[in-house]
Amino acid sequence: MEKAFTFFLLTLFLLMASSAMTQTNITTDQLALLSLKFQIISYPFHFLDESWSPATSICHWVGFTCVSRHQRVKSLNLSNMALTGKIRREFGNLLFLVSLDLRSNNFHENLPQEMARLRRLKFLRLSVNNFSGKVPS
Fold first, then answer.
1. Dihedral sign, CA of 3, 9, 11, 17?
2. pTM
3. Burial (Cβ within 10 Å: 0-12, 13-18, ≥19) of residue 87
4. DSSP 8-class letter at 92
5. Residues of the chain above pLDDT 70, percent
6. What's the mean pLDDT in 79-89?
7. Measured between alpha carbons, how far is 96 from 29 in angstroms, rounded to an integer?
8. Residue 1 pLDDT class (50, 70, 90 cuts)
9. Would you put residue 104 in left (φ > 0), alpha (ψ -120 to 50) or beta?
């Protein structure tokens, strides 16, 4: 667990450093989604390696739709992708998220309380996972 967290921090630092060099900002949404990526321990189709790159706009990542005016994530559909992992508290920073579909994967542990900040969320599908605890209100 410590190794994974250290790897995440090192990667985050490198991303921020390379971002500063290329005059590109890493958005709040991108950081939240990279945090999700680093918590996914198994993804047999390997789309995360190819399409979830800091060099590419999150609006072009597989599974995402953005609000064009704000360039913020509006919907996230990762259903039926055989993902195994957990959702971290940074996920609560996706403040423009309206639709979230994570069904038919193997996400586990509690959903973070920070998800309660997703005030625009209207559509939520989490079935066929291994979450424990309650969905934050």
1. negative
2. 0.78
3. buried
4. G
5. 81
6. 94
7. 9
8. low
9. left
